[in-house]
Amino acid sequence: MINSKPAIVDRFGRTHDYLRISLTERCNLRCFYCMPEEGIQLRDKSEFMSSEEVIAIAKTFVDMGIKKIRLTGGEPLIKKDVKNLLLELGKLPVELGLTTNAVLVDKFIDVFKEAGIKAVNVSLDSLDEERFNQISRRNYFQRIKSNIELLIKHGFNVKINVVVIRDLNEHEIPDFIQWTKNQPVHVRFIEFMPFDGNKWDWNKKVSFKEMLQIAAMRFGENRVLKIADKKNDTTRSYQIENFKGTFGIISSVTNPFCDSCNRIRLTADGKIKNCLFSQTETDLLQAFREKKSIEPLIRNAIFDKKKERGGAVDFENDFIKSMQNRSMVSIGG
Ligand code: SAM
Ligand code: SF4
Predict the structure, then answer these.
(1) Which residues constitute the domain of residue 296?
(2) Which ligand is nearest to the CA of 198?
(3) CATH number of the domain that residue 69 is part of
(4) Cβ atoms of residues 282 and 304 within 8 Å
(5) How far is CA 325 from CA 18, 38, 196, 319, in A?
(6) Nearest C-alpha neighbor of 277 from the set 311, 316, 314
(7) Domain for residue 162, yes or no?
(8) Assuming Cys at both sites, which of 22, 32, 40, 151 could form a disulfide with 156, CB separation 3.0 to 4.6 Å?
(9) What are the distances in angstroms from CA 302 to CA 18, 126, 143, 158, 287?
(10) Is 101 in the pocket of ligand 2 (CB under 6 A)?
């Protein structure tokens, strides 16, 4: 489709063509790094985008040059009419993807196919059942593991997201990489990031450099091969020689990828966050409900985007302030 409207560009010239839409703040897991222990304050349904509103707002973004949409949350698959929503979004001329904890994936395989979804990202922070259940404060390890196998069997491009936290799971990095020996998965190790209520502390993060060293120590430096990263990719990707799968590191804390950022986030209550760490938001849903044009709001919100990490330049100090940000479950990771 030829797009007649100008692209969405910020003051630093970065073109934004990737939209992440959070479908809900609710979740069937309680991962401690994402969801505050006390849960999040439940709000009336009317404060959130209905599926029809998600579709209409997504269409506006697509008209403005969005080429890729990823659905997230909370857990996107618990939204009530998500099946229809996936099928409708699947009709748009975009690459549609999904990030899920995979608890409900077996119920959606056919829908994913019908909606044209090719890539599914699954969060799994431990290969050890007890540890996983401790992290997620629920008991779904076996179901998630078998749903990951199901996705692979059905030919989806599967990425596994692992949030790496010191003294919790960093010693599992080699086990996750070993998993890629025979499985065509891409495991992504994500640096633990600070959000409201997640008890982040500087010492709990494991840096990009350290993760790579752990891989080199186990598999040998010469066998850890750097592979090409896609344009705008937040992941630095690697492969162990002769392994089927690959792995990557996402280092928003120690080695940010802001220079090539092309992402826009839309929260479940219809607010634009122009950066994961931004402390400001733009309310699209209210304007949409008042039948105002949301296009100028989108352009202004992105134009105002800060150069790096929501303006946190001195990140050791400024990052602590990020903890006054929403919790991840309500931003949409
Ligand atoms: N429920 C879905 C899932 O878990 O995949 C989608 C939403 S979840 C918020 C999206 C991603 O954000 C997950 O991969 C999760 O691991 C990541 N995430 C949440 N809190 C994080 C944090 N504090 N630091 C780094 N990644 C985080
Ligand atoms: Fe739920 Fe995903 Fe957050 Fe875990 S990371 S609590 S699965 S939204």
Answers:
(1) 18-331
(2) 1
(3) 3.20.20.70
(4) no
(5) 22, 16, 6, 10
(6) 311
(7) yes
(8) 151
(9) 12, 36, 39, 30, 17
(10) yes
Does residue 3 lie within any of the structural domains? no
* 275 or 128: which leads in pLDDT: 128
- What is the DSSP code (8-state) at residue 228? P
Q: What percent of the chain has pLDDT over 90?
A: 74
Mutation test residue for ligand 2: of 20, 21, 25, 31, the one with most atoms within 8 Å of CB: 31
Is there a domain that residue 173 lies in?
yes
Q: Is the pLDDT of residue 248 over 90?
A: yes
CA distance 219 to 226: 14
**Rounded distance from Cα 30 to ligand 2 centre (Å):** 6
Q: How many domains does the chain have?
A: 1
* Mean per-residue pLDDT, 187-193: 91
How far away, in angstroms, is 45 Cα from ligand 2 center? 20
Which pLDDT belongs to residue 241?
95
Whether 2 is covered by a domain: the verdict is no
Q: From the CA of 40, which ligand is nearest?
A: 2
pLDDT at 129: 98
- What span, in angstroms and rounded, lies between the C-alpha atoms of 80 and 77? 8
Ligand 2 atom closest to Cα of residue 28? 1
Band of the pLDDT at 276, cuts 50, 70, 90?
confident
pLDDT at residue 40, rounded to an integer: 79
Ligand 1 pocket check for 328: Cβ under 6 Å: yes
- Residue 198 CA to ligand 2 center (angstroms) comes to 12
Q: Is the beta carbon of 190 within 6 A of some atom in ligand 2?
A: no
Higher pLDDT, 313 or 82: 82
**326 secondary structure, DSSP code:** P
Candidate of 70, 75, 100, 141 to mutate for ligand 2, largest count of ligand atoms within 8 Å of Cβ: 75
DSSP labels for 16-52?
A: E-EEEEE--S--S---TTTS-TT------GGGS--HH
- Which ligand lies nearest the alpha carbon of 39? 2
Amino acid at 317: N
**Is the CB of 275 within 6 Å of ligand 1?**
no
The whole-number pLDDT of residue 195 equals 66
- For residue 252, which atom of ligand 1 is closest to its CA? 25
Whether 23 contacts 57, CB under 8 Å? no
